[in-house]
Every structure is written in C-alpha cells, then in structure tokens.
Amino acid sequence: xxxxxxxxxxxxxxxxxxxxxxxxxxxxxxxxxxxxxxxxxxxxxxxxxxxxxxxxxxxxxxxxxxxxxxxxxxxxxxxxxxxxxxxxxxxxxxxxxxxxxxxxxxxxxxxxxxxxxxxxxxxxxxxxxxxxxxxxxxxxxxxxxxxxxxxxxxxxxxxxxxxxxxxxxxxxxxxxxxxxxxxxxxxxxxxxxxxxxxxxxxxxxxxxxxxxxxxxxxxxxxxxxxxxxxxxxxxxxxxxxxxxxxxxxxxxxxxxxxxxxxxxxxxxxxxxxxxxxxxxxxxxxxxxxxxxxxxxxxxxxxxxxxxxxxxxxxxxxxxxxxxxxxxxxxxxxxxxxxxxx
Length: 341
Prior knowledge:
Elements: H1 3-36, H2 46-82, H3 85-91, H4 96-140, E1 151-153, E2 156-163, E3 168-176, E4 184-197, E5 200-213, E6 218-230, H5 242-247, H6 253-280, H7 291-312, H8 317-338
Antiparallel strand pairs: 1-2, 2-3, 3-4, 4-5, 5-6
Helix pairs in contact: 1-2, 2-4, 2-6, 4-6, 6-7, 6-8, 7-8
GO cellular component, one term: ATP-binding cassette (ABC) transporter complex
Protein name: Putative permease
Transmembrane segments: 12-41, 61-81, 102-124, 261-284, 291-310, 316-333
C-alpha cells in the first residue's frame, strides 16, 4: 500500500470511527425504546433489558455500518477537495480510478462481513430474542396477585387470599364454568406453588377439595396434592439451525422479505462507493455545498427501492436493485469524475 492510500485511509478511518459511534448510539436508543415498550406488557429487570439489547446488536450493526461507510467516504473526499488535497493526489498520479479501486475493495470486505452477520448472527439473535420475549410473556401469566378478582389460569378463574412471594400462595379458589363437555367445578386448596419450565406452566395445589356440580348431585373429592398444567398460547419456539431458518424464505413471506432487505443493506457499500466519489470529489470553487442533500437523497432512494422491491418480489430484489444502483452510480461517476479528472 503506497503513501497516498495510507493518507486517504487515515482520514477516512478517523471520520468513520466518529460517525459510527454517533449513528450506533442513535440506532441503539431507537432499539432500546422499542425494548422498553415491552415493559408495558411484561416485567423485566435491567439485566433482562440488557440481554434483549445484546440480541438486537447484529441488526444494529446491519443498519449502521453501511450508512456510516457511505457518509464517511463522501465527507472525507469532500474535505480533501475543500483543501485542494485531491488535486495534489491527482497531480502525483493517484487518479480517481485508484481511489475507486481502494474503496471498492474496502466496501467488498465490509459487505462480506455484513453477509456473514445476516446469514449466521441474525437467525440466532432473532430466535433468541423471540424466545426470550415468549418466555417472559409465559412467565407473566403466573403473576397472580392476592385479593384480586377476574384472574385466570388456563380455563380456571382464580382467587387467592394472600401470597408470600411470586410463587407461593395460600387460600386458593379456582372456578370452572360449565361447558357442553364438562360440568361446573370448584376447587379449594390451602396452599399452591407455581412452576415455569420452558414456558410450560404448572399450578401445584396442596390439601384441598374438588366440588363437581352435576345435574342432580354434587360430588366432593379430597386431595393432598394436585397438579394443573397449562400450555401458554405463546409457546416457546424450538431453535432452528441457520440452514433451517433461511430455508423458511421459500414458505414464509416475512422471512423472504427480511433476507432480501438485509442483503440489499449489506450490498449498499459496494453499490454506493462510486456515487460517494461522484459527490465527494469536487472542484471546491464551483461546488461548495449540496453534498448533504445528495447524501440523504442517495440513502433515501436506495432504501426506498430496497423496501419496495423486497415487498413486491423478494426473490429478485437483491440482484435487480443492486445492479440498477451500481449501474446508475457508474454512469454518474463517468460523467462527473472520469470525464473531468
């Protein structure tokens, strides 16, 4: 690597690091607000919130790294043009073609890293995140409070007199309304405990009585211990392998959209490198502004295209949008950079 390349990478690396931490912080806040919204449904402590945040880190990187690369490259080249340093580099024989080759190599490496994240880390983190939320929802079903009416466990209405903590209760009353297949039932128990094993709920009753109200009689059964099981509606999912997860794109529209959209984000550094050069390399005397508008317009158009095409036809969207974006960027690069510099 020659001196000019090291000089460019030094300026680019410094700006990339600063922008990355800023965008990563902003994106993290957005995701963290999304996580904290779950506390309105389920109870979580700070450690559990941190666990969910870790599960969202791969998606945070997917969104921040490509955008940071593009913005940092444009501003780096613009600042060098502002100080006439790009003209010096061109005079010394380091032409725009060499700059393009340098940053295209970096963009390819970054895109490959993002693809590894998409195909390996995203499936694992999404499943862990989903299962953790389902587990907490299932656990929330056990938060039966003392002296409150209208609480349910499975098909039973539950009332308890008092509880020592979240899992030990005393003075339990359970009532089941009559159905076409089952009679009306009432259960009274002195004590109860609650277990949650992988989302499978169990109510353990001790020292109680069961009353079954039939048409002509009432049947009473005394018991020392009884278990009532309940399978929550939000069952904890089984972890799929990476291959099994992405095989779902052939039957699951949401998963097909996710793969298409994430791939287009991963390819954004390659698709946008030439347009970044076209925006950033300028003759400062005649082009003093407008780069920020061009930056946000480029990002908006690419992400809007990625969203629309991934919705319409996720199977072909990555190839179509990427080739179209790269082709447009190359035409602009030829007209604004190659023809002038």
